[in-house]
Amino acid sequence: MKRLFLTLLCAAGGATAAPGIVKVNQIGFLPGSQKLAVVPQDAGARFEVVPAAGGKPVFSGTLGAPARWDASGEIVRIADFTGLVAPGQYRIKVDGLPLSDAFPVRPDNYRALSAASLKAFYFNRTAIALAPQYAGAWARPAGHPDDKVVVHASAASGSRPAGTVIASSKGWYDAGDYNKYLPSSGISTYTLLVAFEHYPRWFERLDVNIPESGNGVPDVIDEAMWNLAWMLSMQDPADGGVYHKLTNLKFDAMVMPHLAQKEPRYVVAKSTSAALDFAATMAAASRVLAPYQKQYPGMAAKMLAASEAAWKWAQANPAVLFKNPPDVVTGEYGDARVDDEFAWAAAELYITTGKDSYYTAMQPETVSSTYPAWDDVRGLAWMSLAHHRERLTPLADRKLIAARVDGLAERLAQEWRTSGYRVPMKASDFVWGSNAVMLNQAMMLLQGYRLNGKRDYLLASQSALDYVLGRNALGYSFVTGFGARPSLHPHHRPSQGDSVAAPVPGWVTGGPQPFQQDKAECPPYPSTLPALSYLDHVCSFASNEVAINWNAPLVYVSAALSELTPKDPSMSDKENTSTALDLLRRQEALLQFERFSNEMALDIGLKLVERAKARKQVVTVEIARNGQVLFAHGMEGAPRDHLDWIRRKSNLANRTGHSSFYIHTEAVQNGLDHDAIPSFDPREYAAHGGAFPVVVKGTGQVGTITVSGLPGPDDHQLVVDVLKDYLEVKGDI
Fold first, then answer.
1. Residue 617 has pLDDT above 50, yes or no
2. How does residue 491 score in pLDDT terms, banded at 50, 70 and 90?
3. How far, in Å, CA of 318 to CA of 552, rounded?
4. Staple partner for 280: which of 111, 157, 262, 348, CB 3.0–4.6 Å?
5. Using DSSP, how many helices (H) and how many strands (E) does the chain show?
């Protein structure tokens, strides 16, 4: 991702505008996805969807009104075929145009993409040979062991003077180059960790075939651990400060890692941004690693201690801004402001420790919300706080958290609604790494959808993925190895230096942007328009490089859409919500008791705890009958505020006779803020999932079974799963 000046003569092509084709997501859709294509304005007024192998149309419709997209200078029309839900292989037909690329509609359609985008991190590992059984054609010897790294003069301290040799092995190569940088590493690792935090079931089933696969830990965590181990080595144990980067003095040649220059590598200067990125990532990693003590003994505690030490260093050194020393010319990742890093680190430490002092230090009222980038991480703070809002201490302003997340999502959705290409990104967003901008916008839209279920947020995030996979002005799939016309010549040393014609798969390339910082070293760009300024050429570090912090949101978004897209696409949004209420009523009708004794409460409580342990979850459980607590247990690591959530959720279930998740869902359907339902004092009632009514047939409700510690839907589902097994209820509920 850095400014390497090349004079290469490579066989590759420049991108050209593709005005005469139908542009569509080239790897296809889930049955329940929104499905859009972009068509030139002068095409016929109607479109058809036909089987890829030929045959009669299976769907037809009228193209939308012409609309201009300033980013590409085009006037286009939208073909909306969301109503096509039957699995199959299809093409779009418009009079006067070639048939579109073939694309599938099928369940689980993004699993291969999700696996490949995660596997890309394995392909960029340092200090390990990539064996054929894991890497296939892209197997290679180990490069850059980094077991003997020199402390640069800029990083010297009393205990580690210049020239000291330390070990700083493992980690990922940052991008197309072979160096390692804390700011990009932090956001990348965090994004993988929270992808697992938000969608554990998806990643528990995602085996990407890395050396650690099968060790009882999801591959996404094992992969993150490879980089976390390196990050830990970048902290000075004497004071808690963190080195900004590990690098050569200059970039390596465009060769394989094991053939790169053998000159010394250095850890360079501590910085405030590095310390805070480190603190935030380690705090998040500590809570994610906590259930995996067997595989990674003591690691969660070590990471939390390292996080707090880095935080203390940053507080004592609040304005150490990084600049490359004169003899270092590799990527700088300089950041003129660190207030966003302070907010992010404070939020993560608050969530993990439960200490109010960290929430106060965040100064949340002063922190706005933006889509994230390595140099602007405010949005990550709000993303984490929103996910964990049910287990935060009473000090947290939950309305502010919701407002920050929803406000950003609504701004992005508004751009999506008015965009000619129906994407959340506007012309001014086309900067270096524009595809990552699109994917990070999608990630933040998904936080809004997870918070309040607004369907537009899900649709806009799907459009962002569609863009990256082919529904863009160039008609490219910007992910190597995926689609009819993928990027073929990324600025990526292993892809260029090996003997394999195809690039390493699963990498999202940077994407078009108008500044063309590499134009002196490259063939002419086809255009200066933001969405057309792209070269599929190895020389183009400005538009065609890969980077770990660009790939991480692709891992997140492909998993999130797979998990969140409705499974019954034939219904309207309101019908889907009504169906959800019907399901919740069915659960309440079926999960009733003939009698309810103290011994039964004990048995159910223990089963809830056992099920949570098996899922690597930390919860608090309370079972009460007629106001008397029959079972109460807080698992190791459960904070005290779980008890307040249990009190308020069970109050709601006792007052309404419904599960607390039913009331939550009903409020959303009626357009209400579930944290401010009229007639329910939020100090006494919480419309969040987890409290389920204990109903004895012929008697009525006699108590509640309540779980706290997970997102509301997961708290609710844990109770339902255990009761279904305990009561031997058959079928899906």
1. yes
2. very high
3. 28
4. 348
5. 20, 18
Whole-angstrom Cα distance, residue 698 to residue 59? 52
- Supply the pLDDT for residue 579: 63
728 in active site? no
What local confidence, expressed as pLDDT, does residue 582 receive? 79
Element (H, E) at 268: strand 266-270
3-state secondary structure of 88: strand
Confidence of residue 409 (pLDDT cuts 50, 70, 90): very high
Across the range 289-316, mean pLDDT stands at 96
The DSSP bridge partners found for residue 88 are 105
Q: What is the pLDDT of residue 312?
A: 98
* Mean pLDDT (whole number) for 655-673: 86
Euclidean distance between CA atoms 111 and 115, whole angstroms: 6
Q: For residue 492, indicate whether it is catalytic.
A: no
DSSP 565-576: S-S-TTS-HHHH
List the catalytic residue out of 545, 588, 675, 714: 545
Angle of the 219-233 helix axis to the 299-316 helix axis, nearest 10: 40
Tell me which of 277, 536, 666, 675 is the catalytic residue: 536
**Residues present in the chain in total:** 733
Q: Look up the pTM and report it.
A: 0.82
Q: What is the distance between the alpha carbons of residues 631 and 44, in angstroms, rounded to a whole number?
A: 67
Tell me how far apart the alpha carbons of residues 179 and 608 are, in angstroms, rounded to a whole number.
Answer: 46
Instruction: Tell me the two tokens of residue 478.
Output: 């910007």
Name the helix (H) or strand (E) containing 131: none
Q: Both tokens of residue 490?
A: 């990324």
What is the Cα–Cα distance from 511 to 16, expressed in whole angstroms? 13
Catalytic residue among 491, 492, 537, 664: 491
Task: Look up 536 and say whether it is catalytic.
Answer: yes
Statement: residue 686 has pLDDT above 60: yes
Q: Are 243 and 236 in contact (CB under 8 A)?
A: yes
Angle at 317 between CA 316 and CA 319, to 5 degrees: 140
The predicted model gives 529-546 an average pLDDT of 98
Beta bridge partners of 62: 46
